[in-house]
Amino acid sequence: MNLKCRFQIVGLAIAVIVFLSVAVAGMAADDVCPGIDKEGRVTRLDGGNAVIDGTVASRADLTAFGREYAEVLGGVLNAQGLGDATDGVLRAIESGEVSEVKLGQGDILQWMATKKKGVVTSFGPVCMASKTLYDAWKFNVTVDGMLQETIHTFVIPKVCGNLALLGTRTVVKPPIPVPVVFLGVDRDCATGMITIDTGDSDSSAQLVVMTAEGIGHAVEAGSLEDPAPYEADLTFRIVAENSARDGKIQRTEKEVTVPACPAPPAECTLALNGDDFFVRQPITVNANGHWVEDGFALRVLDGKGQEVERLVPGPELPYTTTFSKPGLYRVQGGATNEIGEEAGCEATVFIRPRWNLRPKAVVISPTDRITNFGGVTGGSGEQVFDSSVAAELDLEYHPTRLLGFEIGFLGGDVDAHRKITSGADSVVETESVGVTMAHFALNFHFRGRSGVDFFLGPVVAQVDVDDASFGETGDWQGGSDTGVGAQLGLDIPLGKATAWSLTGGVRFLDAEFDNDAVTGPVAMDPLIANLGLSFGF
């Protein structure tokens, strides 16, 4: 075999070996990087495609790399749609919070930065087809989203600084819990306190009390004084809300309405220190019952129903007053409770006069009317007193309700007739005789609630009879005598609100005159009927 032939055989053998080597290598690459095309298979990391000329072998190198290539790295991340991870990447590089890993054959990268013609770009997916193990820095960057967190895992080979995305995973955030509220309200009517319990409600919960107009006023849990326990129901509302992952507002609220306390009924009872008084005598008025502050009123009505005194709000109790006019009065009280309900009370009081002035017309009727006597010429004589009208004025003072001291004066004329009979002849003469009486009486009174006053008692009177001239039958020589007797009377009010009464009565006196020479002793013994008016004061 010639030399040329030998060289041809050797050349063919080499070509076969090279072809087989490439074929085997391609088959090997296919085995470790299935599905990755030729351009995505990385057989070496150093060389012209390195992002940096040097290495990032140490953490200090890594930090310096991050500062120098921050803009380049940001551009790569933006190009890959991961601009929101830029800050996290630079922060991890700056802080050195990274770990060390080895990149070997078959490792798949989502993309890798590379330099082509002096421009840093990125490509991917990338498969490590080289059997060489490369040291690299590894770190995670978390991007917080509304509903989930996205965790990107990056590697930076130390030999070239080509930032690469190893992988991405998402973690769904748990839903934000619906806010919890609790509300318990107790309205204690006995103590006037409200107790509010919000339990384990969320800290964001707000507590309000609603007005009748629907306006909420903030309150705090715990105990507070009831502002108006009897006026109305109270509604308390607690509300808590937060923002859910999807941006919607989650809201939880609860309302509790506590009914108004049952108001104590308005009550009023009057208590006076009596029911029968004299004018200007102090009367003490007290009242018991239930009413709100300034919810008690007092007024006084006379017998005609006219208001003579009014106190609103009521006076401080006990209250002392007086009445200047006699009559029947009604003392009325009014009580108002917390919800405006009213109750009344009443007491009747009778006011007596301390003094009574009684002008009267009287009829004097001598009970011993006829006196027989011997005529001056031997005949027989008869003297007769007739009933006659007179006037009287009495004044009575009442030291007590039972007892009265009365003084009075009466004045008038009594017609006296004289008849002298001698045989068949007779002479009749008439003459008016002046009579005056001054008396003192001790009256015992029995007055009913109607105001009618019945009284009786003993009387002592000084009775004076004037002289009179009868001409033929002789002169009448008057005289004086102290008469003793009794009287009874009756005062009937002319109305419930007047000091005037109709008065009437009778009085009997035992009175005798014995100083007349003609007739001798004369017993008048007058029965006096009277009718008039009485004014009390």
Describe this structure in words.
The termini are far apart. The strands form 9 sheets. Strands 25-28-29-30-31-34-35-38 form an 8-stranded antiparallel beta barrel. A 6-stranded antiparallel beta sheet has the order 2-7-8-9-4-5, with helices on one face. A 5-stranded mixed beta sheet has the order 18-24-23-20-21, with no helix packed on it. It has 4 domains: 38-172, no CATH class; 184-258; 267-352, Immunoglobulin-like; 355-536, Porin. The protein is mainly beta and 537 residues long. The chain contains 4 helices and 38 strands.
Helix content: 10-25%
**Structural domain tally:** 4
The helix count comes to: 4
Number of strands: 38
CATH fold naming of the largest domain: Porin
Instruction: Quickly give the structural class.
Output: mainly beta
Strand content: over 45%
Low-confidence stretches: 3-7, 15-29
Tertiary shape: rod-shaped
Q: What's the overall average pLDDT, rounded?
A: 87
* CATH architectural arrangement of the largest domain: Beta Barrel
Largest sheet: 8 strands, antiparallel, barrel
Query: Which strand order does the major sheet show?
Result: 25-28-29-30-31-34-35-38
Q: Report the end-to-end length measured between terminal Cα atoms.
A: 180 Å
**Radius of gyration from the CA trace?**
67 Å
Q: Indicate the CATH class of the largest domain.
A: Mainly Beta
